[in-house]
Design brief:
Elements lengths: L2 H22 L12 H4 L2 E6 L4 E5 L9 H13 L5 E5 L12 H9 L2 E2 L11 H5 L13 E5 L7 E6 L5 E5 L3
Length: 174
């Protein structure tokens, strides 16, 4: 292939990769549909080769019940672009809440979820979950308390705002 042919192939792959990222950004997280799988940070990489679109994704935790649903939705979106998908679950790279995009954090807040705080150097402790500057997503007050460390999923806890008297879910910093 000539240099011009290589440039055309690279340009075509780049356009397809952009379309794939856009399509994946339309897939809602099955458990929290206000945020996409891209904004959640579970899509790690998109690569294009001659025959396939490769997507690497890291689930939020190992026993995630939505794993197969997310994988199937990604494959369907890629097929919808006329490409052959290969979606691979990456288990050797742990997901963390630091991967949630800025836009994703705002979408969570707007839907009544308190986004996670940035991760500190060590692992979170129960004391960190009980105390801290957790702001209510409804009124913005930091006068909140932990009601239950166990939320509807392993990555969330239940909090209560003393100011507006509304319960809300707090993403744990993972």
């Amino acid at each position: 292939m000539s240099g011009a042919d290589n440039a055309r192939v690279d340009s075509t792959r780049a356009r397809l990769a952009t379309r794939v990222w856009q399509a994946l950004a339309e897939i809602p997280d099955p458990e929290i549909p206000v945020i996409s799988v891209v904004d959640l940070g579970v899509v790690k990489d998109v690569r294009i080769d001659d025959e396939r679109v490769h997507v690497d994704f890291t689930p939020t935790f190992m026993g995630c019940p939505a794993l197969e649903a997310m994988k199937a939705q990604m494959e369907e979106a890629i097929r919808g672009l006329g490409a052959e998908p290969r979606v691979e679950v990456v288990l050797d790279d742990s997901w963390s809440t630091d991967r949630i995009s800025v836009a994703g954090r705002e979408k969570l807040r707007a839907a009544g979820f308190a986004p996670p705080a940035p991760r500190s150097a060590g692992a979170p402790t129960l004391l960190q979950l009980e105390r801290g500057p957790f702001r209510c997503p409804w009124c913005g007050s930091s006068d909140t308390r932990l009601d239950n460390v166990f939320g509807p999923t392993p990555c969330r806890s239940l909090r209560y705002c003393n100011a507006c008297r509304q319960p809300f879910e707090q993403f744990k910093t993972i």
